[in-house]
Amino acid sequence: MVKVSCLRVSKAYGEKAIIVAKRTGLLNRDLRIQREQDYLCIPLIRKPQKTDLNELKTNLPPFEILQHEFLENVERPRKLVDLLSNRLPSSILSSLPHSIDHVGDIAVIEVPPELENYKTIIGQTILVSNKRVSTVLAKTGAVSGEYRIREFEPIAGVDKTATVHREYGCIFHVDLAKAYFSPRLSYEHNRVASLVEEGEIVLDMFAGVGPFSILIAKKQKNVHVYATELNPEAFKLLRKNILANRVSTKVTPLLGDAGQIAKERLKGAIDRVIMNLPEKAIKHVDAACQVLASHGGIMHYYEFTNTPKPLETAKMRLAEAVKQTDRKVEKILHSKIVRGVAPFTWQVVVDAKIK
Predict the structure, then answer these.
(1) Staple partner for 258: which of 21, 97, 205, 337, CB 3.0–4.6 Å?
(2) Which value, in Å, is the radius of gyration of the alpha carbons in the chain?
(3) Every domain of the chain and the residues it spans
(4) Cα–Cα distance for residue pair 238/248, rounded to 1 Å
(5) pTM over 0.70
């Protein structure tokens, strides 16, 4: 038995609590989750910090953090390198991908050149070892083009790129070959949605298939979201997802260039704007400033950066871009590195209050 910090919640919210514990990096996978009458005790790797507690309070009903004794897991889930240790030359095992993206029942991996001749074995191993996966896709290029599309090659299972993905209680119809979608942004989708307040009017400038827009509409009773999208295929999926999640009265999909739509149709009407197009968001700051209400509002600005001080650079670039309009950054509310996208290159977010 091992005594560690524990998240104790009602069984009714057990699955949701496990998901939140995973997202915040708190879940201790070496220990067994335990049930106590009507409660679930979830082992944690450390005592939750202030930011962890805020995330838990935002997503869960009343809970307790206490010390509890847990049994160790007899067997931990085997890593891909363990599963393939007897099937691939030992000299190339270190090149195996360390992460697998799961979108619905599709697993997506990146196969380095030195493993090209073994991609079928790798794909079949992933397929057999994960009952929820029916297709394994290998990335064959970078995200590119006006619509941010990536090419894939099926290496195991059903030959498809379309699936249904579930995230924080929402359903998303996704086609990876036609519209950009990243499950690695699920925490960010929920973080922003949790910040939206009742009565707000929100603009999701680069909505894609709707992960920000729809989750906001599902979380808040009295909000309205304008979701603009340039890619016609992504727009079709956006409309389908709005209907699937029953938020058609709260989300208005708009097809076309986000900047143009913002300036022509939404000027001065928005309380909060989401700018998740890290490649080009800086070019749309002017339009984002124009749509914000006369008294100001909140901007969630994303960008890619490869500078030594990524957060400072992003905040400085945003402040300078806002300064070129008739607005200014009144306060930086939050900034963080969202994820690494390449060696020494990060996607960062800056939440700013615009005056």
Answers:
(1) 205
(2) 22
(3) 2-70, 80-160, 184-354
(4) 11
(5) yes
